């Protein structure tokens, strides 16, 4: 896969590509364009954006450094373009309604990043990542005050539609930036052990409602345990899912080579193949 950006010069190549994408979008939405595209609204496009975003995330995770290939990088390139197209498409819809353009959004984002990185674009000195993140939250809240609005609540910007495990990570992260967290990793680990004990007690009681509650509390604390060690639970679980599926697919392949269906193998046979796959 040729790197056309390096060949043409980064900023110029990106600008040319955006112009081409803009030309394509104009044709699709203009007179004589695609009837289906023309009748869409930003609201009707939301599911497509989510779907393509998930496909992009999946492609990026499949391109992890330890098994990155030309094919996996090409997949990321393609999915990134799909997401970019949808964002351009939605922006064009707003532009047609004379609300704002993609240029307005990009300029706003650039200005916001400059404003929120005074340690890069200003003379602020920060000593740690914790200070950086805390300062980021302070700037976000100050922006609202400058606009004449009451400062937003700490979790006001948390998307309601985030998957639960990712949302738990963001909640713990934002709480920590606000200073509401355990004083040390040891204290948090002790809390995690306490949550595990509460889960075991709920399990022993047989109370399904209590079991649900305590299992959730334990998972929430486990997400924070990982966050404090630089681990994102959703990514770790995603990797575990991929690993399990890869190994199980191998078992199915071996069964087919023997002319068998996976359901015809005994548990001992499947376990033996599983152990064999783990060694690879």
UniProtKB/TrEMBL annotation:
Record-linked InterPro entries: MazG-like_dom, NTP-PPase_MazG-like_C, NTP-PPase_MazG-like_N, NTP_PyrPHydrolase_MazG
GO molecular function: nucleoside triphosphate diphosphatase activity
Classification via Pfam families: MazG
Residue ranges of every copy of the NTP pyrophosphohydrolase MazG-like domain listed in the record: 40-121
Top-level lineage group: Bacteria
GO biological process terms on file: dATP catabolic process; dGTP catabolic process; dTTP catabolic process; dUTP catabolic process; TTP catabolic process; UTP catabolic process
PANTHER family on file: NUCLEOSIDE TRIPHOSPHATE PYROPHOSPHOHYDROLASE
Protein name: ATP diphosphatase
Organism, as annotated: Desulfobaculum bizertense DSM 18034
